[in-house]
Amino acid sequence: MDLPSLWFGIVAFLFIGYFILDGFDFGVGMAIPVIGKTDTDRRVLINTIGPVWDLNETWVIVAGASLFAAFPEWYATIFSGFYLALLVILLALIARGVSFEYRHQGHGAKWTNWFDWMIFAGSVVPALLWGVAFANIVQGLPMDADFNYTGTFFDLLNPYALLGGLTTLSLFFYHGLIFLTRKTVGEIRERARALAWKVGIVVAVLAIAFLAWTVIAHFSVLGLVLALVAVLAFVGSWLTNLLHKDGLAFAFGALTVAAAVAALFASLFPNLLPNTADPTLSMTVANGSSSEYTLQIMTWAAVCILPFVLGYQAWTFWVFRKRIRRSHITGDHVDDAVDIEVERSRGRELAQAAASTN
């Protein structure tokens, strides 16, 4: 494998990691006004991602920096063509980050409600626009011979791209709900599980339609295989969620996101950005990459640094692996008793269902 192809794979890996990690952050943010019935509930939801959300977002910074260094032409065309969309994403992420920090600084329901809705909006907007952006990258853009985007902002809002945006929006919402079943207990956990079942149906319809469109329009054998893996992994996540296998459901959900994003990159390769105006002038891995010397230096840097980054990420999740309870917020262990009774009641229902089946 040559270095440009290797770095195409590394960029794909970084974006896959970002969408898996920040994907469930977005999903939790979207769930706040739906599952959070009280302020305590909403604080529980925020605390599930409180220690990790900012670390998760660094993946997109590293991915963008790698894109800039390894494929400067690709970076320049995307950031000029998608300037308004990426600016909106940036503003949404800023509003979301500020809300996490300032929500608890004021007094009164109006203050906290304002920042809760900022977290919601700051989660919905990137989840939608990242899908729109990547769908347009796979589909291609009208460009001139110097790879300058020649379309308009509204050209980006085409049916394929909008379907991609709705797919990532619903998939990240589902991913976040499954994460909540893994990180909470009692009523909140059951609300997340029940809503994930319903949202999963929407995800299945949108994702199958989007992946099928992608495979048909931009066929590659690897892309087809990865799309099938994504579908099977999602079915596994949806079923294991119904069976209360929270760890498996989340693992299958993460695999769904990884396989779906990998399928997009596989469908794109060896192009970086197809030219819809003149396919012979498409940007490819070969003509859009940096020099061989630059890629060599980057490769050695990645070999030395990336293992430490992955290790630190894994260590962080291990440290903050425990479930979040209402009593962690209120200090009132009566809340624990309520959650325990909900868990026991649900356990009895499952036992009775299993007995009737046998």
UniProtKB/TrEMBL annotation:
Domain of life (superkingdom): Bacteria
Membrane topology designation: Multi-pass membrane protein
UniProt key word Membrane: yes
Family assignment from sequence similarity: Belongs to the cytochrome ubiquinol oxidase subunit 2 family.
Phylogenetic lineage: Bacteria, Bacillati, Actinomycetota, Actinomycetes, Micrococcales
Cellular compartments annotated: Cell membrane
Protein name: Cytochrome d ubiquinol oxidase subunit II
Database matches in InterPro entries: Cyt-d_oxidase_su2
Stretches that traverse the bilayer: 6-32, 74-94, 114-137, 157-180, 192-213, 219-240, 247-269, 297-320
Keywords, comma-separated and alphabetical: Cell membrane, Electron transport, Heme, Iron, Membrane, Metal-binding, Transmembrane, Transmembrane helix, Transport
Name of encoding gene: cydB
Species whose genome carries this gene: Pseudoclavibacter albus
